[in-house]
Every structure is written in C-alpha cells, then in structure tokens.
Known about the structure:
It contains six helices and no strands.
Amino acid sequence: MKLFKKTLILFVVCFISDIIAYFLPFPFPGSVLAMIITFLLLLSGLVKVRQIEPVSDFLVKNMAFVFLPSTVSIVSYLDVFQSILWQFLLICIVTTFITFVCTAYSVKLTVYLINKRKEKTENA
C-alpha cells in the first residue's frame, strides 16, 4: 500500500500538469510542467524525497522502455528518413553532445553547491 501511495503522488502530479498544460494559452509539454511542479513540491517540503524515491528510482532504472516505442516507430518509417538521414543523424549527435555538456555542468554545479553547504554548516 505504501508503494501505491508513492506512485500515486507522481501520477497525480503528472495528471495535474497535463490539465494545466491543456489550458495554457501557449503550447507547453505537460511532462516538463510535471518536473517543475515536482521540483517545487520537493523544494517547499510538501513532498519529501523519501515519499517518491522508490518509484522515481524504478522509473529511472527502466527508462529505456519508455524510448522503445519511438525507436520502433523510427525504424518502421526508415524509407521516409532515408532522404534526410544524414541531417537526422547530425541533429542526434549534436543534441547528444549538448546534453552531455549540460549534464556535466549541472552535476559540477550541484557538487559545488553541496560542498559549499557542507562547509557552511561545518563553520557554523
């Protein structure tokens, strides 16, 4: 039952974010809005990390299954992609590189802030 409640928290946030995204006057992905709402809930303390950690860990570990349908779809439309294959591959390579760089600097910033917070608490 505890795992059900933890899963329900994430599903409710996703559901609410999809509703909000639907009524926005501009197009905005509900999934991105769900991440922002989850971040704000964690930041405010309304939701604790321990409340969603098991479910989020499971989702991250099994993330490859989320991309499987889109990969199969791309393969089934390979004849359409043949004319733009090199542009498509170039975009994939460039965006992968940008993602790696952004992730690396995000981790670097996070480690810096954590160390700064530890130093601050140790000196206080």
